[in-house]
Specification:
alpha+beta, Glycosyltransferase, Maltose phosphorylase, domain 3, 2 domains, eight-stranded mixed sheet, two-stranded antiparallel ribbon, 15 helices, 16 strands
C-alpha cells in the first residue's frame, strides 16, 4: 500500500480548508499515473487532466511542463515507484528528436502529429531533468540509477550544450512556451524562467553525478551550469551592459519599464530587444511584470527552502519587490489574495487573470521562500478560495471534485457566487476554455501542492542534517504533518511526523517530532512571531528576523523523538 503524506492545519476556516485541499489534490495527482504497460497509454504515462470529459480536456496528453512539475512533486512527496515509472516514460519518449518538445506523448491518439511550435519548451525540459534528479533521490541515490538517467538524457543534454554554444546572447537558451511569453509564436524568446530553470536543473544533475561518483559527468554538467549562470546575470538583468549593448548594435536600444537590477522577461530573438508583450489568439498583454520573474522558486526543487545568499540574491529580492508592488495595486489581491497571471490585463476571452499554478502557485511559493509573512498569509488564503468551489450558488457546469484545482478562473464569477472556473462568462456566454476549465489540470495542481509542501518545510538538502521550517500564516495556530519523506546524506530514507502548535494565549509555541530513523543533527525553526519579540537567546536557541516577523531556531536535536519549545514568558 502506498504511504501517503498527510498534512492538516487549524486556527482559521481557511486552515481547515487547506488541509482538505492538500488531501484531495494529492490523491488526484497520484491517480493520473498509469502503472501498467497494458492499454493505450503505457506505464508511466502522466495524464494532464483527471478524467476524459467534454470541453477543454487534456486527458490523452502528456505535456512536458505539466508532467515535469508533476514528476518533481511525486518524487518530493516520496512516491519513488510512481516517479520511476514516469521518469522512464520521459526517457523513452524524447519527443522532438534530441530533446523534449512541448508534448511528450499523446497516449491513445498516436495519429495526431506534434505541432512545430512545440519544438522548444525549454522549461519543460528543465522540469524533466529536475524530475529525474528528484526520482534518483527518492529511490535512495543509487549510482546505477544516476548512470541510467544521465545516459538516457544524453541527447537532451547535448541539445542543451549545442544551443548554449550557438546562442547569440551569451549562453542563453531559446524557448517557445507560455512561460517565456510566446506560446503560439514562430519566434524564440531567451527568457528568464526557462533559463533559470535549466540552470537549477544542471546544478541538480551535476550534484547527482558527483554524489554517484561519476566525476567526469559531474564536471561537464557543472561547467554548463556555470556558463549559463554567468549569461543569465549578464543578459537578463535590467540595466546590465550586455542587453543594452545588444540593443545599441541592432538599433533598438530603449529604456526598460523594469527597474534596474530586476529580471526582465527575456530577449526577443527576432530583434534583440527586451521581450515586453505576449501575443496570443489576437490579444496582447505585458510580460514585464508577471509571475515568471520570480524564478528562484526553482531552487526549492533541489530542497533549498529559502532564497540563496549568492550573487543572484539582490536581483531575486528586487524582482520579488517589483512584482509585489504591482500585485498590491489590485483590489482582488487586497480583498481575496488572488494573483494575476497576466499583470491584471486579462487575455480577451482566452484565459482570465489567474491560474492556481502559473499565477497563484508561483507567487505563493515565492512569498514563502522569502519569508514574507504578511504576503504569504494573504496568498495562502487566496489559494484556498480558488481551489474550493463547493459553495457556489449556481454551478454553471458539472463538477467532479469541489476541492481540486482547475486551469483557469474568473474573478467576477467568484464575486457573484457563481462557478468561478473560466468557461462561462455572465449569462451563458462561453469562452474558449469551456467549463470546468480543465478540472485537475496537472501543472496547476502540482504547483499548488508544491506551495503547500513548502509550508511543511522539510529540508534535507544539507548532508547529515535535517531542518524543519514550518511556515504558518499569522492566524493559523497548528500544523500537523505525517509520513513526509526525507533522505539523509548517505541516501538513507526516513519518514517524519511532527506537530507545531502556537498557544499565543499562553505565550508559547512548541514543535514535537518523531522520525522513523535516527537523525544525528536536527534543527527546527518555530514561528512566526511579531518583529518585537521578547526572547532570551541561548546556545541552542537563536532569533532569526525576516520580512515582517521573527522566528526562533532551536538546534542541537538528535534521535527519533525530539522537541523544541519557545516560551515567551520565561
Amino acid at each position: 500500500m502506498t504511504t501517503l503524506p498527510r498534512m492538516r492545519f487549524a486556527g482559521a476556516d481557511s486552515a481547515g480548508q487547506m488541509g482538505r485541499i492538500f488531501a484531495e489534490n494529492l490523491q488526484d495527482l497520484l491517480a493520473k499515473v498509469e502503472r501498467t504497460e497494458n492499454g493505450p497509454y503505457g506505464a508511466g504515462f502522466f495524464h494532464t487532466s483527471t478524467v476524459p470529459h467534454d470541453g477543454t480536456c487534456y486527458y490523452d496528453h502528456m505535456w512536458s511542463r505539466d508532467a515535469g512539475r508533476g514528476l518533481v512533486e511525486l518524487a518530493r512527496l516520496g512516491f519513488a515507484e510512481e516517479a520511476l515509472l514516469v521518469s522512464r516514460h520521459f526517457l523513452d519518449h524524447i519527443s522532438y528528436g534530441d530533446h523534449w518538445g512541448r508534448m511528450i506523448d499523446k497516449g491513445a491518439r498516436k495519429d495526431e502529429l506534434l505541432m512545430d511550435f512545440m519544438r522548444c519548451e525549454t522549461d519543460g525540459n528543465a522540469l524533466a531533468f529536475l524530475g529525474l534528479v528528484g526520482t534518483w533521490k527518492a529511490g535512495g541515490k543509487s549510482r546505477s540509477l544516476a548512470r541510467e538517467f544521465l545516459e538516457g538524457a544524453g541527447p537532451v543534454l547535448e541539445w542543451v550544450r549545442r544551443e548554449m554554444e550557438g546562442s547569440p546572447y551569451g549562453c542563453l537558451l531559446p524557448s517557445v512556451s507560455e512561460m517565456s511569453g510566446n506560446p503560439e509564436s514562430d519566434s524564440l524568446v531567451y527568457a528568464i524562467y526557462p533559463n533559470y530553470g535549466m540552470r537549477t536543473a544542471l546544478a541538480g544533475l551535476a550534484g547527482m553525478a558527483r554524489e554517484s561518483g561519476l566525476t567526469r559527468e559531474a564536471a561537464r554538467l557543472a561547467d554548463l551550469h556555470d556558463r549559463l549562470s554567468a549569461s543569465i546575470l549578464d543578459w537578463l538583468v535590467s540595466g546590465k551592459g550586455a542587453w543594452h549593448q545588444s540593443g545599441a548594435q541592432t538599433g533598438y536600444e530603449q529604456p526598460s519599464p523594469v527597474p534596474p537590477g530586476c529580471w526582465i522577461n527575456g530577449i526577443d530573438g527576432r530583434n534583440g530587444r527586451e521581450h515586453l508583450f505576449s501575443e496570443w489568439g489576437g490579444t496582447s498583454w505585458p510580460v514585464y511584470r508577471w509571475t515568471r520573474q520570480v524564478p528562484f522558486v526553482f531552487d526549492s526543487d533541489l530542497g533549498r527552502l529559502g532564497v540563496e545568499d549568492d550573487e543572484f540574491r539582490s536581483v531575486q529580492q528586487g524582482s520579488y519587490d517589483y512584482l509585489h508592488e504591482g500585485m498590491c495595486r489590485s483590489r482582488f489581491f487586497r480583498k481575496y489574495g488572488f494573483v494575476s497571471n497576466t499583470a491584471w490585463t486579462g487575455m480577451g476571452g482566452r484565459h482570465d487573470d489567474t491560474m492556481c499554478g502559473y499565477g497563484q502557485g508561483l507567487m505563493t511559493q515565492a512569498a514563502l521562500l522569502m519569508d514574507d509573512i504578511n504576503t504569504y498569509t494573504r496568498l495562502v488564503e487566496g489559494m484556498a478560495r480558488l481551489a474550493y468551489d463547493g459553495d457556489v450558488v449556481r454551478p454553471l457546469a458539472f463538477d467532479m471534485n469541489p476541492w481540486v484545482f482547475h486551469e483557469c478562473f474568473n474573478y467576477q464569477n467568484f464575486e457573484e457566487g457563481l462557478d468561478h472556473t473560466f468557461g462561462v462568462l455572465g449569462e451563458g456566454r462561453y469562452g474558449i476554455m469551456d467549463n470546468p476549465g480543465d478540472e485537475g489540470n496537472l501543472v496547476q495542481e502540482a504547483e499548488a501542492l508544491k506551495a503547500m509542501t513548502l509550508m511543511a518545510g522539510i529540508d534535507d538538502s544539507r548532508p547529515g542534517q535535517l531542518r524543519i521550517l514550518p511556515r504558518l500564516p499569522w492566524h493559523w495556530d497548528r500544523i500537523e504533518v505525517r509520513d513526509f519523506p526525507f533522505i539523509l546524506g548517505d541516501g538513507q530514507a526516513g519518514r517524519i511526523e511532527y506537530v507545531l502548535e502556537h498557544e499565543r494565549w499562553l505565550r508559547k509555541a512548541s514543535l514535537s517530532i518523531r522520525t522513523s530513523i535516527p537523525v544525528p543533527d536536527a534543527a527546527v525553526r518555530i514561528g512566526p512571531f511579531p518583529s518585537r519579540l521578547a526572547f532570551r537567546e541561548t546556545d541552542t536557541a537563536r532569533i532569526e528576523r525576516s520580512r515582517g516577523g521573527t522566528w526562533v531556531w532551536v538546534t542541537g536535536l538528535s534521535g527519533t523523538e525530539m522537541e523544541g519549545t519557545v516560551d515567551l514568558d520565561a
